[in-house]
Amino acid sequence: MALLQLRDLNKHFGGLHVTNSVNLVLEQGEIHCLIGPNGAGKSTLFRLILGEHHPGSGQIWFADEDITALKSFARIRRGLSVKFQVPGVFKGLSVRQNLEIALQSRLHGAALDKEIEGLLAFLNLEAEQAQLAGNLSHGQKQWLEIGMAISLKPRLLLLDEPTAGMSPEETHMTGEMVRRLNAAGMTVLAIEHDMAFVRQVAQRVTVLHLGQVFAQGSIDEIVADERVAAIYLGQAHA
Amino acid sequence: MTGFLGLFRRLEGPQTLGRGPAFWALFALVLAGALAYPLFSDGYTVGNTVYFFVWVFIALSLSLIWGYGGSLSFGQTAFFGIAGYGYGILTINFGASYGFTWIALLLAIGMAALVAALLGYFMFFGRIGGVFLGIVTLAVTLMLERFMAQTAGPEWRIGAARLNGFNGMSAMPPLTIPWFGGPIVLFADVGLYYVVLAMLVLVYLALRILMNSSFGNVIVAIRENPERAEMLGYDIRKYQLITFVIGAALAGLSGVLYTVWGQYITPSSMGMTAASLPLIWVAVGGRSDLTATIIGTLVVLSGFQALTIYGSQYALVFMGVLLVLTVLIAPNGLVLGLITWVTKRVARRKQETA
């Protein structure tokens, strides 16, 4: 069953066609990675899905509902959630309070506290719970934000470069987190440059190039595709 | 019952300084001192003390909108003026009998809140934020001042109330409590002192509860990162609007109390200087905490008053210097910085002795 459908989505910034007739279907329960060279329009696509940008034409369907005209917060309430590229934690607040703010619309009192404990353990942030989020390491901030994003119990989790700035160990741990979330039923769409991570988690990969869907398939198919290597992997390893 | 107890638990929390028996004992001590103070002073001095209390509400409103909510507003002074004039117009027309002054107080605050709701709707739902919010609110404040300044002519009247331009509106009745043996009129004296003190304590405690509730959580989240807050499913515009309206009501309360205190209000109470001074008290005190805001406001305001009384024409210049120093030394506020420094030292002492 399709959870998210982008239908002929277009977005112009002046003369720049950043999203060019994108059609993308995300199946319920999959981990789908979005890759592509810088400027391919990956983050713009996320912003369109989240309602931070509005498409010039085309539709966005989520769980059999047209959400193209909905405001961001309304989309979130329908079961979308996101971790931004630059960690968007509440820097001046404690780690614990960050999670509380994410959870409080769903849980209260003792149930809320219990859920926070569980999340802190899942995110390896138990020792840091009283610290200000702004004092965390970059990787920990990423985890905290993932924790906030999954607090909403979303049906679809959007991850914009979840492993940026992480060590290989941290990247691997993040991959395991994502797989555990997916095993629990969460559909994941991730923008990622780190091919090790993509290999670790992706069930399907879409390559975006110049605002268009360039190729789609399993990671092995994508890696084997010489055209993709030419525009993306080729450039990256040149 | 548990809901009621829950409210009490919210008196303490991450958004407000002070917790535990030590803090509340100190609170009770200060309150007892404030209650006993008129016994050791004369009515005139007590009445002047009320003047300082009057301004605390507008300071708290700024703490709420700016310190907690992250939106700098110059509009508090406008709401102050709207409510002040509103009270004057209502009571000059309808008098003070049957406790009407209290209804006028509520109506005047309601007017300020209504204007804030309209203005706030267009600002927040039009996604005006950051420095532009400051510019729009300042423009509204100065526009109101300009408007009121040109109302000196006799044609500017609402019922029996002349607006009077820069001469100011005066002779509105003070707050009056209807009583069996004849109404109790609260002139700027001991009676008004206790009433305003009670309001102050109530507002302070209520704001502590509000800021430590889930509502307060969202407010500080919007200050820290509005995009993230929205992407957690919160309609941030609604939260900003509600905060703005609560703030306007508090500023309005200040305006009404100022008017009843001196039975007088002029357009300059909405001028540039009037709009800037509360910002300085709150910035110097520590805008992101209610307690620091109150202490800062009372200290700076009495210092300012002393400077003015003892003949210094440079009181305003001194305020400017104070603001610059605050920004340089303790950007989060001098009082707040001092409190944090002391608590850290005490905590370290405890650790060392333990």
UniProtKB/TrEMBL annotation, chain B:
InterPro entries: ABC_transp_permease, LivM-like
Recorded topology in the membrane: Multi-pass membrane protein
TM region(s), chain numbering: 21-40, 52-70, 77-96, 102-124, 131-149, 184-207, 241-258, 264-283, 290-310, 316-342
Keyword Cell cycle among UniProt keywords: no
Keywords (A to Z) from UniProt: Cell membrane, Membrane, Transmembrane, Transmembrane helix
Main location (coarse class): membrane
Subcellular location: Cell membrane
Protein name: ABC transporter permease
Organism, as annotated: Bradyrhizobium denitrificans
